[in-house]
Amino acid sequence: MVVEKQRWIKLVCQALEDGKVKEARKIVQLKYPFQSPHQNQQRTAISNLKKLDVFYRDSFKCRYCGKETIFAGTLMVISRFIPEEFPYHPHWKWNATHPAFWELASSCDHILPKARGGGDEINNLVTSCYQCNSIKSNWTLEELRWKLLEPSTSEWDGLIGMFVKIMDKHKIQNRYLRGWHRLLKSYERVGKRGGQK
Ligand SMILES: [Zn+2]
After folding, report:
1. Measured in angstroms, how far is the CA atom of residue 67 from the centroid of ligand 1?
2. Looking at the domain assignment, is residue 190 inside a domain?
3. Are residues 120 and 157 in the same domain?
4. Residue 104: inside a domain, yes or no?
5. Sign of torsion, CA 59 68 133 152?
6. Which carries the bigger pLDDT value, residue 33 or residue 130?
7. Theoretical Cys-Cys bridge with 126: which of 63, 101, 136, 185, CB 3.0 to 4.6 Å?
8. Domain hosting residue 56, numbered range
């Protein structure tokens, strides 16, 4: 299937011109759905432990664009210290969140989207930067004409080691971050080199 997003928008316009709002809505929902990566992330049932396994297998590199991603908790910690220079909004409002979150934060993405029948098994999950995750949305690799990169064996750790170090030293009152900190303290691969098992 060739993706022609402009065509779908044109069909939306035509429907609206005819006053068929319902049809316009249906086209968008089916052919060009809105889904923020944040929502996407929340809807998945992937445990934090499984996410770590995916991130470490891929050395925290985006399997779509090859970018070195940064653990979102690390970016959130920076924001706790310097919120004006490095703002973070819990719903990632674009005008209240530093671009580093969109450009660099690690996320776990389904290669075959859940909406298209993909499962939560580790072979269907990859490390993705938020930017790619957002574009990928509910498309398949074939539809986007993307190629999946091999898991990286570099030593990049997504600065997750720095997250643990800062959290060790400073009392940061945030349940989400403390939860990750607790998990990471017991996760054997933190502080060691990335790459494959
Ligand atoms: Zn990417």
Report:
1. 6
2. no
3. yes
4. yes
5. negative
6. 130
7. 63
8. 35-185
Instruction: Report the predicted TM-score, pTM, of the whole model to 2 decimal places.
Output: 0.78
What is the CA(191)–ligand 1 centre distance, in A?
24
Three-state DSSP state, 22? helix
In this prediction, residues 58-81 reach a mean pLDDT of 95
**How far does residue 54's CA lie from ligand 1's centre (Å)?**
15
Does residue 131 register a pLDDT over 70? yes
First to last CA, the chain: 37
Q: How far is the CA of 60 from the centre of ligand 1 (A)?
A: 11
Rounded distance from Cα 64 to ligand 1 centre (Å): 5
Cα of 129 vs centre of ligand 1, distance in Å, is 4
Say yes or no: 112 and 170 in one domain. yes
Average pLDDT over residues 68-75: 96
Q: What is the mean pLDDT of residues 131-138?
A: 92
